[in-house]
Amino acid sequence: MRFLMFPYAQSLIFYYLSAVDPLASMLSRLWSPAMFCFSIMKKYSTLTLAVAAACSLAACSAPQNHPATNVTLKDAFADDFLVGVAVAQPIIDLNDTAAIGLICQQFNAVSPESVLKPEYIHPSPDTWDFAPGDAYCDFAAQHGMKALGHTLMWHNQTPDFFWLNDDGSVRTDDEMRASLEEYVEKTATHFAGKVYAWDVVNEIVSEEGDYRNDKGWEKYYRGNKDDLVTLAFSTAQRCDPDAELYYNDYNMWRQTKVDGVVRLVKMLQQRGIRIDGVGIQAHWGLNYPDMKDVETTIDRLYDLGVKVMITELDIDMLPFSKEGQMTGRAMYDPALQREEFMRWLNPFPDGLPADVEQQIADRYEEVLRTIYNKRDKISRVTFWGLHDGISWKNDYPIPNRVNYPLLFNRDLSKKKAFDQVVSIAAH
Ligand code: XIL
Asked: What is the number of alpha carbons within 13 Å of residue 4 lying toward its C-beta?
């Protein structure tokens, strides 16, 4: 296995452990994770590939776990907005036919959960790898779904060499601009005609509405960051003139943050740079945000003359996520993995009590009803992952938990939340 493919190999292992074999997932937390992952990979790879090959053509036409009796998400909201899902690449690469069947049945747009990020495409100064991204685009084309590109300029999942020299010193602004332009140029050119839109810049605005200064481009670039954002958008426009170009961010219910995003959009518009839309990520919780704030945000963004999308919806109900999205490496402190903390931080390791399942269903209904009421201003709603077993929320902001943030259970069955969500469009 090539070292450079490490993040990708890691996601394959994660997928195996969390979705294919729950028992293995449990044991891996008790045993040496690395050795155990390897043995599971070896044990199942032949079997999985054989099954995958046998089922490959049947996947989209015959969803296996879901009789097509009920309304689907994409049909329920067909007159209102696209309904998308973030696809974990192992679903495609391992030809997980049950997951593919469900995706095709329920959704009409896809986002790549990771493979179109810089750490996959350009993991080292001399390496470019478009193959996983191409597989994602082929998958979308084969099944007639709109494929988003996510994301060109971001401080996370981007290798340090974009900003730092080998000795740790900070590169010059000219060097950073050249790296950004080269990256956007090569990537947007390669995927032109394959993705219909790009999240060009992701998460560059702080909670207070100015530029962030804590990581990556935002931390190291000394010059005017408006110029850097302009460079990313203008290069994407030059290299893929037909793609729609978006800005995407989280905590967009916070109006000080929206102030900053509104300023960024207007700045681009005043400079004559095209921006077609803004994505509201929507990594939300049971009791936040207040949907009134979300309505205000949708109105404010729509008034700029751009598309507004809900791009990464999931609802986290585990501790520490309740009053707002907690971020940062502090949540990875090993002390939090101790039993006394985990008992509190990971309260539902064996499944959800009915009353909590109902709380999630009611919250999803509230969220989708708000969006539905604003449907004239919303062009797409994308869920960040297919089912609870492979949601990033099992490991973020705190690793090794059992979370329930999506509309489908680990066995791909529908949650109560699903029924309450599709019923909104019928009323
Ligand atoms: C997440 C993925 O879901 C994880 O698998 C990955 O390890 C980290 O990134 N905002 C974004 C997404 O724009 O790209 C992030 O996706 C979630 C937060």
From this structure: 13
Task: Examine the domain organization and report whether 108 and 90 are in the same domain.
Answer: yes
The pTM for the full model equals 0.89
Of 203, 244, 357, 365, which is the active-site residue?
203
Q: Residue 350: which CATH number?
A: 3.20.20.80
Percent of the chain at pLDDT exceeding 90 = 76
Regarding whether 77 and 32 lie in a shared domain, the answer is: no
Peptide bond preceding 97 in cis form (omega within 30 of 0): no
**Count of CB atoms within 10 A of residue 143's CB?**
16
Buried b (16+ CB within 10 A) or exposed e, 252-290: bbbeebbebbbebbeebeeeebebbbbbbbbbbbbebbe
Same-domain check for residues 354 and 205: yes
Question: Which residue's structure tokens are 């028992």?
Answer: 23
Q: Which of 113, 218, 244, 312 is labelled catalytic? A: 312
- List pLDDT tens digits, range 129-154: 999 999 999 999 999 999 999 999 99
Is 68 found in the same domain as 54?
no
**Structural domain range at position 39:** 1-58
The length of the chain is 427
Together in a domain, 148 and 197: yes
Q: Measured between alpha carbons, how far is 388 from 390 in angstroms, rounded to an integer? A: 6
Nearest protein Cα to ligand 1, atom 13: 202
